[in-house]
Specification:
single chain, about 475 residues, D-Amino Acid Oxidase, Chain A, domain 2, Arc Repressor Mutant, subunit A, 5-stranded antiparallel sheet, 12 helices, 22 strands, binds flavin-adenine dinucleotide
Length: about 475
């Protein structure tokens, strides 16, 4: 079959684009190198739906951030993903900082960010009592929000799959060719073809541009790693909104923010690295972010950390996102260098990609049978999001919803079975974890992982020793005498 469109990369940009295209009369595929959607930068970032005052007016970044902020709120409502409109402060400690806040405020006005104000220390401390007494002012942006970046990406991908988009996981594009207006991509074993190819490969997007046949591609990607701590829910309340310091030439700096799941996130730092896939954390990096957090909230207790992680930014050598039709290759669109605020912008990036497709001559009609939501019965997608009545009804319907598998995050056997049987089936422990948070609580999966693995084995008709953490050879259990080649 020849697809109309193949999207390379199932991060937030690829998944949102797939979902938008699934509302049209066309045949779409998404190919993803990893064993799941939302595993790249989309899985490891600060989760802030930025208001949009950072980017220079007139840039794509500025326009798509402000539009994306608005669309993300709609999308989360539509797909049943939690989003909290907590707002953000950029905190100033000096006269120089105040000047920076004034510049950000003016940028925000030019970019169309609603409701911003520069407030004095007294008002800031009323809103955020734990902020350092040395803080003298802040830029308050009420439209900033927090959500779960991989949660909304998985939801968008699943919704796209429900509407007929084909997902090819474990499909790393390594070569391509073109003939007669059709483009072919291959992972070495399977070849797929399409009229249009959209490159949404994140930190590998410049490399994928070359695989697609670009010569002297004008953008380089510099991978820049950022490290984080997640603090236990006992720390919740230490910050009511996202707390930034003034940005520097290394980006937005270390922040402290509530997460949508009730934890506190602290980080990131920003260092260029050689290997774009190196998501390791370092003791020096974690010490640096602990120190940065204490500047904002001196009494923050970093010993409340339950985990640490790192994400890698696809920083381009140009200031802006590079989202364009290829100048050399017909039918190719690149979304390259979509660094922060790329998550916040992603629903608007998807809209923009559709505009570029239209300019290329591809403008399919809307479908009348498009399903824009994930559940048609009106229930939340997860037990722990249900009302007491909905929970009672779910348990009556299926007693599996009455069996708690992850006690830290209240994830039931029914939820896990739903995830295993979803349009993009969860067949690894991390797939279940990213969808339901089983394993993301205080015990970090110590209790629930074996039970999740057993359920995956049972429901997919395999044996426990074949179940992996994240695909490939990441087996957890070794059968005596068995050979895990
Ligand atoms: C530390 C950090 C903090 C950030 N904080 C924020 C924030 O608070 N708010 C915000 O708005 N943004 C933030 N960002 C930016 C945001 O995470 C990114 O802009 C966004 O996730 C980019 O999404 P993407 O879909 O372009 O890339 P990705 O999520 O990286 O997805 C690209 C996908 O392409 C796949 N791929 C790569 N090569 C191939 C291939 N050859 N074949 C097939 N598939 C391939 C990858 O496996 C990957 O899944 C942050 C980023 C980082 C790293």
């Amino acid at each position: 079959m020849i697809y109309d469109v193949i999207i390379i990369g199932a991060g937030c940009v690829g998944a949102m684009t797939a979902r938008l295209l699934s509302s049209k009369r066309c045949k779409v595929a998404v190919v993803e190198a990893a064993a799941d959607v939302a595993t790249g930068a989309t899985a490891a970032n600060s989760a802030i739906v930025h208001a949009g005052y950072d980017a220079k007016p007139g840039t794509l970044k500025a326009r798509l951030n402000v539009r994306g902020n608005h669309l993300m709120k709609q999308l989360c409502r539509q797909l049943g993903v939690e989003l909290k409109e907590v707002g953000s402060h950029v905190i100033g400690f000096s006269e120089d900082d105040r000047k920076t806040l004034e510049e950000l405020y003016q940028r925000g006005l030019a970019n169309g960010v609603p409701g911003m104000r520069i407030i004095d220390g007294e008002e800031l401390h009323r809103m955020e009592p734990n902020v350092s007494p040395e803080a003298t002012c802040s830029l308050w942006a009420p439209s900033a929000a927090i959500t779960c970046p991989y949660g909304i990406t998985i939801a968008a991908a699943e919704n796209a799959a429900t509407n007929g988009v084909d997902f090819y996981l474990n499909f790393k594009v390594i070569d391509s060719s073109a003939a007669g207006g059709i483009r072919y991509i291959t992972n070495g074993e399977t070849t797929l073809s399409a009229r249009y190819i959209i490159n949404c490969a994140g930190v590998h997007s410049a490399e994928v541009a070359e695989i697609l046949g670009e010569h002297d591609f004008p953008v380089n990607i510099i991978p820049r790693r950022g490290e984080y701590y997640i603090l236990d829910k006992a720390s919740s309340g230490i910050a009511n909104s996202t707390l930034f310091v003034c940005p520097s030439d290394r980006g937005k700096g270390i922040l402290v923010s509530p997460t949508v799941h009730g934890n506190v996130i602290v980080g990131p730092n920003a260092y260029p690295i050689e290997d774009p896939d190196d998501k390791s954390v370092t003791s020096e990096g974690l010490a640096e972010i602990a120190q940065g957090a204490k500047k904002i909230i001196p009494k923050i207790d970093i010993r409340a950390a339950i985990t640490s992680f790192a994400g890698v930014r696809p920083t381009p050598n140009i200031y802006d996102f590079y989202i364009r039709r290829s100048e050399q290759l017909d039918g190719v669109i690149h979304a390259v260098g979509v660094e922060s605020p790329g998550f916040a912008a992603s629903p608007a990036v998807a809209e923009y990609i559709l505009e570029l497709l239209e300019e290329s001559g591809f403008d399919p009609d809307d479908r009348d049978d498009y399903i824009p939501t994930r559940r048609t019965d009106g229930n939340p997608v997860q037990f722990n999001m249900m009302t007491e009545e909905q929970k009672a009804e779910a348990c009556r319907r299926d007693p599996a919803y009455g069996k708690i598998i992850c006690r830290c995050e209240t994830v039931t056997e029914g939820d896990i079975i739903d995830a295993i049987e979803a349009p993009i089936p969860s067949v690894t422990i991390d797939m279940v974890k990213r969808r339901l948070r089983a394993g993301m609580g205080r015990c970090q999966g110590g209790f629930c992982s074996p039970r999740v693995a057993a359920l995956i084995a049972e429901k997919t008709g395999t044996t426990l020793d074949r179940v992996t953490k994240f695909g490939g050879g990441s087996w957890l259990v070794r059968k005596r005498g068995a050979d895990h080649e």
